[in-house]
Amino acid sequence: MTQSSRDLSRRRLLLGGAALGAGTLLTACTSNETNSNDAQIKPNEGGASAGNAAPGTKVVIGFSAPAADHGWLGAIITNAKAQATAYSDVELKTVESGSDAATQRAALSTLLGQKPNVIVLLPHDGKELNSFGLQAMTAGIPVINLDRAFPDARAYRTQILGDNYGMGVAAADYIVAQMKAKGISNPVIGEIPGIDSLELTQNRSKGFSDTLAAAGFTVQRRVPAEFTVDTGQRAASQLLQAVPKMDALWNHDDDQGVGVLAAINQAGRSEFIMVGGAGSKKAMEDIQADKTPLKATVTYSPSMASSAISLARLIGQGKGLSDLVELQVPKEIVLASETITKENASAYLKLGF
Predict the structure, then answer these.
(1) CATH number where 79 lies
(2) pTM, entire model
């Protein structure tokens, strides 16, 4: 399916009421809001004596991310812009990245010609845009890669990733604990990943299956979606039709999870528990309310964009992290994945996107 047809399908689903009886769930999808989450922004506190936070040499940061057709991506973009405004010595230059890697590559070529000091990039596909990273680094412009890894370490100065394998581990750990608590020795477990061609999706699934296997469990049915509401609903409908009874389900992404829950509601199914992924505000509210199968979600925070802007500034100014002995910003940063349940959702709610 092309991006344009996916967008049209999504509009039909959201506006046309395609899921009978599930309209409330669908309209509650995480939105591409223009307001940043203050809890995910680190303000520039202090004055001239504030160490790394003190104003220094001006840094021009180029920024590119896929179009915000998804709540998590929307948060990535707004967080990056908001973090840049926290520094008087940062100028952010953003480029429209379109709906595919080719369009983003063209936009990035334009950005490269503007000669920013540092580039922060969330690629459509890390493998396809690896060559751009190499080009920029060869030109002397450090690249901070976000989320979708470049295969070549020479293509980036610093890489910030969520712990995709760890997300799978955390989701499986929760399910294993719940199954053992219920005395279910041979559970029927389903999985709805995101875009299957992405390495991050593959790592999430591997962490999930590896951890389940250690407990003697397996995934009985796996139906991929594409990180959107409509594809989540479609994948869930297929899975529910194929599996008449299920004990647990892991859905990799809370945005597509809105569609997953819509399909579950439409099918009248409630015999299983569900774990989400990423940590959207909507998912946390559903977990708190405890009126759906969604009982937990594992985090993959878009705050990584805020951190990337801060690190780009330090790299541009030739500084390291003030709390580390090393004089330079690290090469790799992997964010931990945490499990949010009804018991701790109130503490995490402010971090939801």
Answers:
(1) 3.40.50.2300
(2) 0.81
